[in-house]
Structures
1.
Amino acid sequence: MDTIYLKNVLPEIFLTKENTGSEIWRQEVCFSKGQTVLLKAVSGAGKSSLCSFIYGCRRDFSGSVCFDGQDILSLKQADWERVRRVSLSIVFQDLRLFPELTAFENVEVKNCLTGFRTDNWIRDCFLQVGLGDKTEEKAGKLSFGQQQRVALIRALCQPFDFILLDEPVSHLDDENNRICSRLLTGEARRQGAGVLVTSIGYEPEMTYDKVFRL
């Protein structure tokens, strides 16, 4: 996948708004593979909705979202399985970890589906982000900031053309932000991938090619 194209997209809940004041909603916007894009928003502006639209979790929007010119509403279940396995990764704002599984098992579940990483690579990532002693801890017992780091490692356990990051560092201190940002930047560069980040004021320390106000 080389492009994600939005044309006149608007969440159904905003349909009665005459002017959203957005550089995304009701606009024509193209995200290209290899670009790092920041979507700045206030709470309630629809950033999580946008990520869910692109990832195919929700369809309650008007307009069109296209992958390489193909409207995503035309994709079948098998198409989505392929897209989410090899082209599109995501870190949801609410993370969606399994609280009863350990931190390592949460990552392993994803990696068993993709076979993309070795156990040594995963454990090295836990060390890099300061969670080397938390691999066997139940995810539900970790702080939210620790869970964010687990979710990021999990999202990197697959090939991707684009990765969607919905407020991925909101609960990290500056040092852990820098560490996770380096890990993410390095992997995106290796895969030549596009990065889409949403933020309400605290974002990964990365160089952004484009910044949009949502």
2.
Amino acid sequence: MSEPAVLYEAKDFIATITLNRPENRNSMTEDVFEGLRASIARVKEDPELRCVIITGRGKSFCAGADFKTGVQRDGGATRTLLPNERSFNMYKPFLSILSIEIPVIGALQGHAIGGGFGLAVVCDIRVANRDARYGANFTRLGIHPGMATTYILPRLVGLPRAAELLFTGRIVSGAEAAEIGIVNHAVPEAEVMPRSLELAREIASAAPIAVRWTKRSLYRNCDWDPVPAAESEAQLQSRTFETEDSKEGVAALLEKRTPVFKGR
């Protein structure tokens, strides 16, 4: 019997959630979604927890959509979903991290691309592998960004820098991600988890009620509401899936070549 797609451990007031499909680069597959859903439910049911760490095994934190199996999902719906609903359902499990009341640290031991980058930026604090690659490469695939990326990224790095990253679909190193404010820290791969645990323990040593309420105030005062933005993005993303450019972008990715976009 294979190991679970997502591992869960709780110790000393800290929960660690580990994406555990390294052979598939921890892509957004149904078993990963289900494991993450169950892990988040366990976090919410445990009143003793004070911090959560989300990490992955292997060279990728999360590679985003699994283009071999499809980039939209019905999520077990009992009716036929509209294309935009299927696009939103692709990101919904990751967006549920936003509902966790205690601080969430992303221990980004490996690459985080596309939807996987979206998973990274919905964490409260990020510790990156300085040599790994991070970014929202949607336009390089011929599709509109999803996972509230157009909402979150400008709030992290500012509008001009976010515009450059999103328009180009550029991927940056962990070291550059720290320089421009996408991540809090960029360290060697072997130090990602120890640094994340150090931060988690520091958070866990503070007064837990005060920390939870501080997190709530922090995001309320920023008018933080990414989910409606993700729903809006899903409308446009689902339409770009209909274009020839998106088909060319995905084909080029799978064939490991440079795409040739024609604007149709």
3.
Amino acid sequence: MSAAPEGIVLPLAGEDGAALIEFAVSLPLLVVLVVGIFDFGGAFNTKQELNNAMREAAHFGANQPTNDLELSRLSPPSIDAIRFLVDAYLQNAHLGDCGLSAVAEPSYSGSPPVWVYSSTGGGCSLTLSISRSNVVQETIGGATVRMLYTNVQIVYPYQWHFNSVIQLLVPGSSFALTTIRSDATAVNMN
């Protein structure tokens, strides 16, 4: 290495240049790490909120009478009440409801029946499925008992920021998970 003429300081010579190169190499890794922690923390928090909402909805649905399920297949009051409970829970948790409260009628299919609310609004799309008359058989003291249970499921969108940052390290790559799923089940009380 040639020495600079006296009185002239070469920029980024020696240890300073090596430190700058190390920083330039490690900065993308640090950014990916920080954004990854932020994103996965947000996804975990969203999953916990959805788990809580589904648990509350299943418990609420299990305590509702099932006699309205035979009267109106399109939108029974107990099914609508579960939908409004989930919508309120999402709003109180500061999660977007994707227009869930504005869905007029759910689709209905299957046996046991499943009511599905598909909503798109506010730039997102979610699916809420409610089934209130599922049957499970248990043997208690030698006798077979049929119990009805309520199951509530949600497929909720999650916007990852990690995709744009991971491309700093691996151009063209993407993190494919775009939804978070949650469900809960509770035995009906009547």
4.
Amino acid sequence: MDDTLAYGDALAYIYSFTDYEKRGFAAYRPEFYNLDRVRHLLALLGNPQQGFRPVHIAGTKGKGSTAAMVESILRAAGYRTGLYTSPHLHTFRERIQAGGELISEADVVRMVADTQYLVAQVPEITTFEVMTALAFAWFAEQGVEYAVLEVGLGGRLDATNVVDPEVAIITSISYDHTAILGDTLPLIATEKAGIVKPGVPVVSAPQVAEALAVIEAVCLQSRAPLTLVGRDWTWELGEAMGGLEGQSFAVRRGSEVWRELWIPLLGEHQVVNATTALAAVWLLREAGARVPEAATRHGLRSLRWPGRIEVLGRAPLVVADSAHNGDSARKLMAALQAHCLFRRLIVVWGASADHATPELIDALLAEADRSIAARTQHPRAADPAWLQAQAEGLGFQVEVAPSVAQALAQALADAGPDDLICCTGSVFVAAEARTAWFALQGLPVPSGDPA
């Protein structure tokens, strides 16, 4: 082990590798994305992915929330759990968790130092592949029993797709990464359904007909039993819609009904995600997992998943969210209307150039009384002046600010106590809005969150 390596050095090492996801726009083909490199590295590490039972999750939106729900339920049931998600809000450590705790800086440093000589034996390996292999090795070291794994990009050729899961989950599919995954829903669905394995049960969230047809065909070909949320499992919203702390709901499977379930997340789409998570946990129970109903309820209720329609302030209302395509932006706006009472809507937003589609802009700004475009610190963030031009071409008036913090300050200076400020457009906007909000209050990021 290199005793001179610091945490910042370890991160710089991980991010130093060719990263096709960050470079973007390379077609999703085996010559650019393939599983050979990560399989090679995992073999050198002793195939740690064989030491835990994976739950594998692909989809366009909702996969992170669904992953967090499944993990929280299994942990409440007493299992040693792992959670692998991306991207992160505030720290790389959020991506890799065991038992509800983030990987420590010391463990990141140690894992990097101990594996550098193995990584060097795998030419052309990418950043995400290194992250994935290190996560799997750490999970095995930590004695993880169930690891809930979120796909990074696509599914078929994603580095996580080397596992043999107990259950596969496909969340809502919509248009995203079209330059890489394809510009039609059947093409995108084909890549997402690439996580389906022969005979392994699959849970799908409700899908548009084009995407569902692909999923059904892949499952039929693979003889993978398909559970479809909205058909086999259904949900009912509770009476508490309009509250800001969370929402109650009921779930039905055949003649069985689970009532008065509660999640600390807003929006009907999160109830759909919760129903999808419950269907997956049910399949794990059928395979032998011990998950009593009390653990299921507690796991959902105790979930912590910030940056998703998260209420930061009350007068005015200040919300941070991670919607980054048209479909998720529409769901965001529907949730704000359902849960929040407000006079004016001020939207603080940003996006990368490839995500700033007319569909996203229209969904975010159609009901806004004022909008401020800002640039995040992410290297692919679009210039706010460019975002302004795109929005004005669609008939919207947009102001610009050099940063999310400055845009939030401008919005707060204008907002009355009955107004709503929504900061969204990407996970990076949500993260910077959270940081700026707590800084304005003279507070650090809350202790329950990554720091």
